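Before any further analysis, backbone shapes were mapped to integers, which produced the following:

***
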Amino acid sequence: MSRPAKFATGFYLQRSLILCALLIMFGCTSLSGSQWDQRYGTATARELGAGPQQAQYTYYQHTKPIIEQRCVVCHGCYDSPCQLKLESYEGLLRGANPARVYDGTRLLGASLTRLFEDAQSTAEWRRKGFHPVINERGNSPGANINAGVMAQLLELKQDHPLPKGALLPEAFNLAINSPQYCASIENLHSYTAKNPLLGMPYGLPGLSEQEHDITMDWLKQGAAMGKAPALPKKLHTEIARWESFLNGDSLKAQLVNRYIYEHLFLAQIDFAAAPGVYFRLVRSSTPPGEPLQRISTARPFDDPGVARVYYRLWQDPSSVVAKTHMPYRLDAARAQQWQELFYSADYQVSQLPDYKSETASNPFVTFAQLPINARYRFMLTEAEFTIMNFIKGPVCRGQVALNVIQDHFWVFFYSPESQATDEQAQFLADNSKHLQLPAGAGNTLLPLSNWLKYSELQKEYMAAKAQFIRNKVATRGKFELHSIWDGDKGTNNNAALTIFRHADSASVHKGLIGQSPKTAWVIGYPLLERIHYLLVAGFDVYGNVSHQLLSRLYMDFLRIEGEMNFVELLPKSAQQPTLHYWYRDAESNLQTYIDLYLKQVEETNNIHYQTEAYQEELYLKLKMHLGKAAQSHHNLNTAKLPARKLALYQQLQNTSGKAISFLPQTTLIELRGVGLFSLIHNSAYSNLSSLFGEDKRRIPAEDNLTLTRGVIGAYPNSFLRLESHELEEFIAQLQGLASEQDYYKLKSRFGIRRTHPEFWAFSDRLHKLYEIGEPEEAALLDYNRLENR
């Protein structure tokens, strides 16, 4: 027989075997489902409000705190295992789905599965591939326990608690991209028979006896929802007032409100009348006063499909999780600010822009009729929130998206006065075509050709910017320190930000935190707007690999531009050497973008230096210029500490050498009687100019630590607990780390591991201290990245 014939025979044989296996599998599934039907009745999707009306235990009155503290700490945001988002009762009804939202390899965009948006009923979620985790068959105690995945997994944990020992065995796969076990009730027992340690909470201690009994009794009675807390009457009046404000009929009002929506669509809007209750600004096809009919599109600037859009406030019932928590207060001061920025200014809006993707994704085209000062001030006044959107928004997790930034850097901003000039407005109008963003390409299958397109546009933009700066310096003089925003003389603490990257997540905080970082950015209006439309408004977490790669590659341009803006404040002689140090061993084409700008301009600043440590001196000058706006309550020196105690903290932060290599990215430390501290391991790289080969660019010898007060990061990797008098012993043991065994001993002495019998008590105390110390920022932390060491 010829080789082609053998190949064909083998192919058809293999295909036949696969088909037989599939038929057997589906036959077994059908039979199993039939058995469940016979035993407990046919499954029917359970809709909101259709559960038992009379029950001793309900979600809102009894089990919500337990689910928050024991379940949501792993089941929240897009990276929730099996898409089981338990921040709300609606998420519990929706259930689970084995498809991953975060998938950087898919060739086609995934189906949208955003809770509250992409389906309006449980039946719709079932058609989208979600299966129930609570019983949807006959309502009886036996059915509610035996036919419910959640109940069965909680029982499994009680029957098979964590094995004894400090570390979990290899049977527990805790890697962030580990295989998911998303079993439905029909195949659950085949999973658990082979994997009896899959009980929930997975890889953590089980619920206490009281918590377990309450939760199981609630499930046994039908998992009733109960009544959500009523909103204060005065809040309804406040909402009506704001919805009226956000839906003016004039062309100016409609354009302004579109701009506001596209920048606040991820905000957790709150009001003083109801602290802790959050709303989302959404698009609706119905005006205020009528039932809200939400318009859901992949991106906020996509065509709404209606003649007139209305902006409404929708109450979000979800529990608050730190990795997505972005509060934004609406009050009288905010209304006055927007009135002054957008309505009191003398300008006209003659025509509303369309929603075509290539133009709607470019804010410099869509909102060209709005004053630059209004747009920049709108984002700048809440700069932490603006930057936080790309940190905590659709990119709340993702190595591809976040390996574009350093582990620790500072951000400054150009002053509004330097940005809101007639020349700047004309420059943006003339160069809007150069500022196109990858969002306009959508889920393209041609990443290379699109990359070349945006690369050329960026080159043209940098050359045009160089010419613009030369003209600006010639007519207005060189940059002074007052070109950097001082937070309106220190009254606004958004003027300086610190960003930390923690592997595949990140965090942003007001003020300059920690020791002087390797790099810093200076951001002006065009750069700030492009970051938002690249990684927030235009980023599709369900997009294909090309969309995500283009977003990552384009962010390289924006990072380089922000860094060059900072370097431009150094003496001319120090600019190229500084960038060469930041980009050691980078690809040769990187220099092209640097040369297109820095080599085309002469000395642009008028800052006088007295030492040759230019970057450190510039940091000091900026701190002096910013005043109070540079301060942060996270810094060690913000508390009035004895000199000896402060010296110990500094000694810990100044740890260097091999010891650092054994530490995880983020460690939360409870110093008993003092409070919470975060120990952050900042990894060093020769450069960040390449998407791949990050490990090859690591320089462990240049790693450092930042020790802060309070909580930094939403995904802690390790927990430590110390008595105050143990601090010196702890520092000595940490600085002496020379092996993994040494780290094991450190954790055995001071750690609260996953297996610790007091794990949940520590977790509860940690969240309480977090809330006391940082009431505005505090929310539920995520435990998916806790180490097993």
